[in-house]
Amino acid sequence: MRLDRPIILLDGNMRRRAAISHTLAGSGVHVEPFEAVAELTAHWPRSGLILAHDDPGTIPALMLHMGRSGDWLPVVAFAETPGPRRIVDAVLEGAIDYVAWPFEDSV
Question: Which one in 22, 61, 63, 87 has a CA-CA gap of 20 to 30 Å to 95?
Fold first, then answer.
């Protein structure tokens, strides 16, 4: 699969961020990795899909920034073995989807 826009990866865990970047890049996907919401908002991309690790406060912080700036991008949250409540909360906070890491090739 080839996406015409980059994946903006937001994850504070350096090892997981590197593993995800490597996995996606190996599938032909351009990845722009960021460690923290503040780093991403300081260098807000013009286009892309945000793949954000579901740390407490991450999704609301992204939605707050997009609401204030008017620069909206889709957000997909992820975590290792997320529970149903966590998934529902992320979607209610504004994520358009939720995936579990490690990702399957089809994802």
Answer: 22
